[in-house]
Structure formats: structure tokens, C-alpha cells
Amino acid sequence: MDSPTALAALTEEIVACRACPRLVAWREHVGREKRASFATEEYWARPVPGFGDPDASVLVVGLAPAAHGGNRTGRVFTGDRSGDWLFRSMWRAGLANQPESVTRDDGLHLIDAYIAAVVRCAPPANKPTVEERDRCRPYLARELALLPRVRVIVVLGAFAYENVAALLGVRPRPRFGHGVEVPTGGRTILCCFHPSQQNTFTGKLTEAMLDAVFARAAALR
Fold first, then answer.
1. Which of 3, 81, 128, 196 could be cross-linked to 132 through a Cys-Cys bond (beta carbons 3.0 to 4.6 Å apart)?
2. Quick one: average pLDDT of 143-161?
3. How far apart are CA 177 and CA 205, in angstroms?
């Protein structure tokens, strides 16, 4: 089975997953109750698969879908403020064909890049349990195996870094920090603060800082 076909089959498997009762209940509750500003929309309310170029050399990994972002739109980092920052920066680095992502059919295409998350369902308070993480992380491991050209993995936040480093067998693991690079087995893990509102509103992460990470990712691929 070629990589695009295998990734498509994995996507179907991820979307059908109901392995974590707490996460299933939460994602579906959010989809029923909705946020007032999205009251007329039909929420996805299912696990959110990765997406992008099957021949990607750059992989971007986040924590989990946002309750009213990916859990609403069905595409990770789509329809929320974190995604606004992320896709603008990827577009400026030549890794996306447009600077915004609003819905999963808005014409966005990633260029030599793929995006996924460690956990595929929106967790309450954005905090999956250890057991939920362990049930879900094999999906990321399988995506990595199906993306053989990946040379750079941009990890958004310490949670993504810890899990990617564990999957790649990084020992000892250098401390997470914005811009930290960890070479491993022909790939480079590139650490980045998560473009959450907590970081962007406070200035912990600026657009220039995010752009520098993706410019470096593009140079390393």
C-alpha cells in the first residue's frame, strides 16, 4: 500500500475511534452545546486526523484539537486563533498555499508539510490524562512511519516535544525551549512555543519568533 493510501486508511481509523470514554463524552458534549458564536454550525465532534502532503519533509505536531477549533471544523488548527498564527507563519515560510484556515474545505493546501497532534480528541481543559495519551499516541507513531521523507519535526509546546522525543527514542532528552534543536536518527526535532492565546497575548511568542522557527524548518528540510 502506498503512503497516501495508507494515510487515508489511517485517517478513517482515527475518525472512527471511541477508545477514551471521557474524551468521547466531552467532544460530543461540546458539539451539542456549542459556543454562541458558532450556534448555527454543525460541529465535527469526532477525532481529528492529521492532514497535509504525504511526501512532506516537515511535520508539525501539536497537543490536541481545540474544543471550538478542530473539534468544530474537523481539521486540526483550523478555525481558532492558534491556527491563525500557525498558518500565517507557514504561508510566509512557503509551507502553505494561503495564510488562513477557516474550514476543512477552504482550499488550504500544505506544501511539503504535514500537521498532526499527539491526542486526536479535544480534552477537557486541554489536558488529556496519561492513559488517554498512551491510547492515542500510537496513531502519531504510525503517521511517522508513513511519512518517510520527514526530516524536520516542529513540536508546538513541551507536551508535543516530550511525546515526539519518546517515540523517537531520544535519551537523554534536552530540556524544552523555544528554538531548541534536537538531531535524532536523520531527523531534527525543532522546538517552538505553542501559538496558544496564552502565549501570543502575553508576548511569550511573537510572530517574528514563530517565523524564525518555520524559516529554520524550511532550511533544514
1. 128
2. 98
3. 12
